[in-house]
Write the structure tokens for this entry.
Amino acid sequence: METTDVRCRICSLKAGHPGVVLDDDQVCSLCNLNVAGDLLENYKYTNDVFAEFQQAPPNPRGDFDCLFMYSGGKDSTYMLDKFVNEYGKRTLAYTFDVPFESTHAAQNIRLAREKLPATFVLDSDDDNIKKMMRDVFNRPRPKQPGKYLDEKLPCVSCRTFFVIRAILYAFRERIPYIALCADPQQILTMESNVREVVRGFYRSFGPELASELFNGEIEDVLFAEDDELPKIVFPFIAMRHEYDPDRMVRELKEKGLYESSPMETHCTLFPLLNYYSFSNWGCMFYKLNASSYVRAVRRNKDYDRSTFSIKFPRSLDLPEVEDRLGRVVMEIAAGSGDREEHREALVELFTQMDATEDGARFVAETFLDMRKVAADLGIKVG
């Protein structure tokens, strides 16, 4: 893909990154806070819904006050512990069994089941979520310059799929709230109105495929009365100024609720997500996340934590890491290059991105297996 080497002089986002524009001073629209109005509006809405949730009386229509989306990652594990042991809500811990889930995330779920006095439910639909992912990955190259988050379309689509599954579950069981543990910056880019979540899915996949993927049930949400629909709650909205991934992981490990690093709980499609971002948009999958951290450090030299789930070290040479990772990913996708050299390069890169040695090796192996995973799912690479 043809790209430009012109980058934002503050956060290193490239010119042409989806939804991002550089001005004459070589500063991107995110650094210029051109989206501040939309972000503040979203924060106000999600904050109001969370305040409403906190004050809501017990659900008179069922056994649970909220459906808690539990993935086994550090964010949802940390907050589930609080819901069960500190908040006075009757909580149903809902896990959608994503077929691409890391074995480490599954281990964390087992720990929570053993240690937390919550009601757990497991949902799954392997065939339809795989069908959806094939549709996303095998689409023709998207039109340029693209919209914000287009480089993450497969990940966003996967997340939306199981959020809709949770919406349908809560709708059927008459559970009024759905707790979704997005980190503070993910909240800014996520739709919180359940009807709009469904409408957005329709726009992305068309009414025929959207209906097929959810066995026709999805229309029930579109035509239900407002008071029949659950509301999405983002618990981290209340602690957005104190969000600290390192502290959260440390506390969870002390309680025996978490055994992995955040890198190790990535889904097995993480390499393919990077392939999609590099092949279509010329960027690494976590570029927005890393650039956000660089931007924050530039503005506040004492800043030492991330508001995203993955923390990036201050010393990271982001353009160099991105360029090297892109070369390795595209070689693996094409079936070229030396496997051992790829392994060494990936371990070095992920270690630079603050992964532990074991975590870096674990993730490197998933990248080396990218072509096999793609073939198993019917996804074309190379």
Notes: The chain has a mean pLDDT of 89. The longest strand covers residues 91-96.
